[in-house]
């Protein structure tokens, strides 16, 4: 019986994925990473196996495999996505892709899935080395397999970040920030994993063996966070290249609302620490605030008609779900109300002044950059990049001012800059600062930004609806 092998990719695969895979597998960067990893692992593993004692050989081989695999898929592979969309934008080929009936989401997802598929190929080549490591004994099979999967999921998320940001017109955002942030983030994550895994006296793989409830919860939350952030970063890239008629905002906001409600319900039932809930809400809100408050599209009849067909209910939901920055303001404040109510329902919790200041500081820290973007009348895709740059700049300014205040042994200087949201959070650790006065000042500026942004959003939304109705008539 003659066995036939497929000569090409099946037709069921996305044409964008097939195109990117064909090109990606032939690039020197992938071939270099792939061959270098195999050669280095082969040489080092043979040397480690012959030089190490029988008790140490297994752990030595495991460490070598995971270190080099992490370098390949967590640092090198995601960085290849920094030019995924920018090269298409510079070459003016996005419009030609759209003419082939490929949506913006399929274009971005195809770029991302091609890079992730190449990382999966590298993952498959690691299996023979794990089989070799098994014969040295002392292998925590579940722990090492789970860690391998988590490294791959982390790689997919980081790739989503670089691919999504590659559509940004800012060179700093799409190139310099990932080149600096990914290595530093990978190092910080490695240190966190080592400390958390060895905190109980065991190896790092014991933490990933799913033997304790804490490890199961931590790993589940980590995977959920990777999925959430991966989706939103790809969505940012999609919005930057999509035409106005393609509405991706509604799905994003529905997902964010569902995640917020789920987090509120879980927090009310199981959590007893308000500070933990503040961190969770900030991690949930950061991506949706970033993209919702900086929407640069305009309302078009096909999108609005989909809401209007449901009558009063559809028009009411459109106030929160239509793809404009004005409705993004309404939606983000809706999420804030959900989070704020849940914080007061957390069982056995006491909300002190510092927690309130930190909570309002985190909220205004996400609103203040968007307010600047709209006050300076920035338009187009640069709104997103400017928002992120304003956020980073305000954080750097706050840290610099805190360092100056500590060198002068007086935090009174920070009162002059309390209107910058992150500054108020640096004043919560004492240093002669009156807690009540800090709470009043933070609340004042928070409500001021809230009122200004709401007024701007309401005015913009009414004008957009009026222009749309006028053009329709």
Please supply descriptive tags for the structure shown above:
473 residues; mainly alpha; 76% helix
Please outline the helices and strands:
Blueprint: H1 15-24, H2 28-51, H3 54-79, H4 86-90, H5 94-99, H6 104-134, H7 141-165, H8 171-198, H9 204-207, H10 213-241, H11 249-270, H12 274-292, H13 301-308, H14 311-321, H15 325-343, H16 353-375, H17 382-407, H18 421-426, H19 435-472
Account of the 3D structure:
The structure is a single chain. The chain has 473 residues and is an all-alpha fold. It folds into two domains: 13-243, no CATH class; 244-473, no CATH class. Helices cover 76% and strands 0% of the residues. The chain has 19 helices and no strands. The protein has helices spanning 15-24, 28-51, 54-79, 86-90, 94-99, 104-134, 141-165, 171-198, 204-207, 213-241, 249-270, 274-292, 301-308, 311-321, 325-343, 353-375, 382-407, 421-426, 435-472. The protein starts with 14 loop residues before the first helix and ends with a helix. The model is unreliable at 197-201 (pLDDT under 50).
Question: How would you sum up this structure in a few lines?
Answer:
With 473 residues, the chain is mainly α. The chain is 76% helix and 0% strand.
Low-confidence stretches: 197-201
Number of helices: 19
Structural class: mainly alpha
Largest sheet features? none
Number of strands: 0
Give the topology string: H per helix, E per strand. Answer: HHHHHHHHHHHHHHHHHHH
Query: What's the number of domains?
Result: 2
Approximately how much beta-strand content do the residues carry? under 5%
State mean pLDDT (0 to 100 scale): 81
Distance between the termini: 70 Å
Radius of gyration: 25 Å
Query: Overall 3D geometry?
Result: globular
Helix content percent band: over 70%
